[in-house]
Amino acid sequence: MKSYLLHITCSTSDERLPIDQPVNNTCPDGGIIECHYDIERMKSDVTKDDIAAGPASLWRYAPILPAQDPDHAVTLGEGWTPMLRAPKLEKLLGCKEIWVKDEGRNPSGTFKDRGATVAATRFRELGIKTVVHNSSGNAGGSWAMYCARAGIDCVNLLAEDSLISSLQQSSLAGAKTYMVQGHWKHAGAMVQRAADEHGWFNCGTLKEPYRLEGKKTMGWEIAEQLGWELPDAVFYPTGGGVGAIGIFKAFKEAQSLGWINDGNHKPRLVVTQYEGCAPLVKAFREGKDETVTWEDMNVLPGGLKSPKPPGDKEVLRTLRETEGAAIAVSSDESIEAAKLLIRLEGVFPCPESATTLAGLLRAIEDGSVNKDERIVLMITGSGLKSIPNFPEPDLIPIEAGTDVPGN
Ligand SMILES: Cc1ncc(COP(=O)(O)O)c(C=O)c1O
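YS: structure for the whole thing
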């Protein structure tokens, strides 16, 4: 299936950007570089059945992705991840409907693969040779793998405390892997300087339009997997903001195509963050439309290390537009929530993604979520990426050859 990409704009300036050349800049005033599609032509050419007949990967949404030749996508089989009903959790919490979207099943272990597959595909089409970016770990591992597959050189500036899983992915996949020592908030500017100096493509958060398009497929999948209905609330562990923005972009696209059964239904966005780095929660509570850089970051190694989220204005706008909520939880709460999810439902989340469940527990307590709602918890990464963050396993030594006691 071909792409119906029509044009690329900057949301704050109405500037039209070229679709056939690399777009690598930022919009003024925290705007978003956005891909737009020919919705009218898609309406007459493409049906939901065409999508259902597509591959069991996010490439089933090729008509509404920017790659021009999806048959030659840089793919490792990402997306179309399980959307699992969580009956034991529903019973425990007295909720009517809780769904868990298990993004840990992506090739590198996190949802970052969605952005990487679409961006690497488009970069290769556009002839980009080297990309550079900064990451708290998960995106670094993912981009290294997709760049290896695409034949693109990758330079990663990773956080000093990145988890070993991400460091190994990045380095084994052949990315030049730097560890940024000192304050993480300087990493973005280092990447921009390196890109300017060496002519590399800066694929940092929201510096280009393709990563967002990949991440938005989470929203497309939620809609399709719920039988073309939208949930009432989506809990999203938010760092830079791309995933949350993408999910709600997808909902709007699906609604504008007329594919959603109740076209007026408005899901709420619930942002979850760690208390040790919660610029979005703070700004939302204070009624601000922009975040202030979070100075003393104190979070577990892994994602959600975004002291000044590049997508802050758009996320805050979406929170207000959807009458959403923003909840900060402690690291301990997220570890406990991860343990609860694996024990009750068998899904093993990384702690940063378990902030969604920890956030739901808080939301139930303070009444900001209605127990009758259809709730989706985004589990953006696997616990396998994050083993060092978990407590030692509970093990019982037993002598070889002795009898195992009954339960
Ligand atoms: C596992 C995981 N979940 C969520 C996020 C948040 O990403 P974003 O808000 O940019 O979509 C990150 C990265 O920070 C992550 O690694």
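YS: worth flagging: The pocket of pyridoxal-5'-phosphate is lined by residues 110, 136, 138, 205, 237-243, 303-304, 306, 350, 352-353, 380-381 (CB under 6 Å).
IM: good catch. Also Residues 97 and 374 are 5 Å apart (CA to CA).
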